[in-house]
Design brief:
With about 250 residues, this protein is an alpha/beta fold. It is built from nine helices and seven strands, in the order E-H-E-H-E-H-E-H-E-H-H-E-H-H-H-E. The protein has a seven-stranded parallel β-sheet with strand order 3-2-1-4-5-6-7, with helices on both faces. The longest helix has 29 residues, at about 105-130.
Length: about 250
């Protein structure tokens, strides 16, 4: 613990489990207060309680709803007095080959990942403008760089998050707001561990470091981008992949 985020408040979407929860825990270890948003009201309340009620709260939030995002951000300001960091992490998968993928499956993934990240970035930046500072961290994926079989929806959304982050970073840099993105590779989460073993092994074979990443290894990079350690970085994309797709 080094207090890199002492006195800061961070909002994290998709915060009830996996990478989002790991980021929340690491942020708290670094001195931050955290507001977790998640579709699952009970799970996000339990996650926040597990971290500690004095430094964490959970709020039910559908990231495709601007009203829900506004409510989530308001909860941060009301409870802790500020909004210093926004992590747009919420995501879903609806994998299928393009031939079999339905329009609904395409739209669901684009709405949660791309529209959700846009709303979170837009509304957080509006609050951060007023205080003249802030850091936004958007969660892309290595799938947004290379394109994954069976993920025309997910790969397109994750590539879009990169371009969105760069465009938005140009718009708000003069206001003291930094926006950067992370592209995780194969990270050991409940979502990835549900993969068929053959799919897991084929991905493992592509990783020079020979192992999957852990959620906390993404969280540590999120701390870097959220803190003053990255004070002269905006519009960047950091790959955290064990060397996959170099």
């Amino acid at each position: 613990m080094s207090d890199l985020l002492a006195g800061k408040t961070a909002v994290i979407t998709g915060g009830a489990q996996g990478i989002g929860l790991a980021i929340a825990k690491r942020f708290v270890d670094e001195g931050a207060n955290v507001v977790l948003g998640d579709m699952n009201d009970d799970a996000v309340a339990a996650a926040a309680a597990g971290i500690g009620g004095d430094v964490a709260i959970g709020v039910g939030c559908d990231v495709t709803s601007s009203d829900d995002i506004a409510k989530l951000l308001k909860a941060s300001v009301d409870r802790f007095g500020t909004l210093d960091v926004m992590v747009n992490n919420a995501g879903i998968t609806r994998d299928a080959t393009m031939r079999k993928m339905t329009e609904e499956q395409f739209d669901q993934v684009m709405n949660v990942h791309l529209k959700g990240t846009w709303l979170g970035t837009k509304l957080a930046a509006e609050i951060m403008r007023e205080q003249g500072s802030g850091a936004i961290v958007n969660m892309s994926s290595i799938s947004g760089k290379v394109g994954n079989f069976g993920q025309t929806n997910y790969s397109a959304a994750k590539a879009g998050i990169v371009a969105l982050s760069k465009a938005a970073a140009k718009e708000v840099a003069a206001k003291g707001i930094r926006i950067n993105a992370i592209q995780p590779g194969l990270i050991r989460t409940p979502m990835t561990e549900a993969m068929p073993e053959q799919a897991w092994e084929s991905k493992m074979a592509e990783i020079p470091m020979g192992r999957a990443g852990e959620p906390d290894e993404i969280a540590k990079v999120a701390v870097f981008l959220a803190s003053d350690l990255s004070s002269y970085m905006t519009g960047t994309v950091l790959e955290v992949t064990g060397g996959r797709y170099m």
